Amino acid sequence: MLRFMPVGDSMTIGSASDHTWRYRLWQHLCGAYGGPFTFVGPRETLYDQQAGAPTSLAYADPGFPRAHLAGWGEGWLHMAPLIGEAVRTHRPDVLLVSLGLIDLGFYTNAEQTAENVRAFVAGAREADPRIRMVLLPVIPNIRAAADPLFAEQVDRFNVLLAKTVADLDEPRSTLLLASPPEGYDIHTDTYDGTHPNGRGEQRIAEAFAGAMREAWGVGGAYVA
Q1: Which one, of 13, 58, 67, lies nearest residue 40 by Cα?
Q2: Rounded to the nearest 5°, which phi and psi values hold at 23?
Q3: Per the domain annotation, does 78 fall within a domain?
Q4: Is residue 161 within 8 Å of residue 104, measured between CB atoms?
Q5: Which of 22, 109, 171, 180 sits most deeply, having the most CB atoms within 10 A of its CB?
Q6: What's residue 30's pLDDT?
């Protein structure tokens, strides 16, 4: 069985009213991947923005494997120390990672964030030398649209992320850089300029699915 672990921030954990891109990708793989698979990880919650805390609300589809390693307000800085234990315990084959916006917005500059990416990769590989990863660049968001200096940091980090993937990729532990979601628009694909609505969730899921299909032949063409 192929085991995926979604890793991310608020856009990955999702809030109490979201389906999440994790769910959209699961729906896609249910129809497009020919073998057994599941999602794994140490957490299963969504996030309740009103309560300011994780919440265990059920999805409409009880078959959806809700496990992940994602947290509201968490970034590469927070996940790098956690990933080794998560990989050892939950034994994922593939990490699906969407991080960086929180780091650049509150904690680290582009260069420091890229160093945390390297620490994350090293921690995952120490736990499993054959782990594979798909990394998503920081995607368009309202802060980058309104703050030119922040936008420069996002652009700089995405360049460094691509270099990091190229530097660290190796045959036994493949790193893929997913393409930014095609046509992603903060006005039509988010509900607040940052967090994806249903259409945005589909676009993010398609970005991960496309990277795995092109590089590894996992799944077919994405159908929303």
Answers
A1: 67
A2: -65, -40
A3: yes
A4: no
A5: 22
A6: 95
The pLDDT, as a whole number, for residue 193 is 97
Q: Is residue 222, in this structure, part of any structural domain at all?
A: no
Parallel/antiparallel/unpaired status of strands 94-98 and 2-8: parallel
Which tokens go with 108?
A: 């680290």
Contact 100, 138 (CB under 8 A): yes
Beta carbons within 10 angstroms of residue 217's beta carbon: 8
- At 201 the pLDDT is 97
**Tokens at residue 158, please?**
């995405």
What distance in Å separates the CA atoms of residue 87 and residue 125, rounded to the nearest whole number?
9
Provide mean pLDDT across the span 19-30.
95
Structure tokens that stand for 11 in this block = 């856009």
Whole-number Å distance between alpha carbons of 72 and 95: 18
Checking if the pLDDT of 169 tops 80, the result is yes
Number of domains the chain is built from: 1
Q: Which domain holds residue 23?
A: 2-216
**Cβ count near 63 (within 10 Å):** 7
Above 80 in pLDDT, residue 142?
A: yes
Structure-token pair, residue 163: 């270099």
What pLDDT shows up at residue 95? Answer: 99
In terms of phi and psi (left: phi > 0; alpha: psi -120 to 50; beta: otherwise), the region of 137 is beta
Within a domain: 120? yes
Is the residue at 221 inside a domain? no
* pLDDT for the residue numbered 192: 96
